[in-house]
Amino acid sequence: MRQSSFLFWPFPCIIRVIKGWDSLKETDLYMPVKTYFEDRGFLVRSEVRDIDVVAVKENLLVGIELKKGLTLELLTQGTLRQKTCDLVYLAVPKPKRVVKNRSFTNLLYMLKRLELGLLYVDVEKGEAVEVLEPSLYDLQKGKRSSLKEKVRILKETEKRSVDGNKGGSRGKKLLTAYREDALRAAALIRVKGHISPKDLKERGLKGTLLSKNYYQWFEKVGHGKYALKSTDAVEKVYEPLLLGFMMEYEKEDSLQKETVQAEH
Question: Is the same domain home to 132 and 243?
Answer without folding.
Answer: no
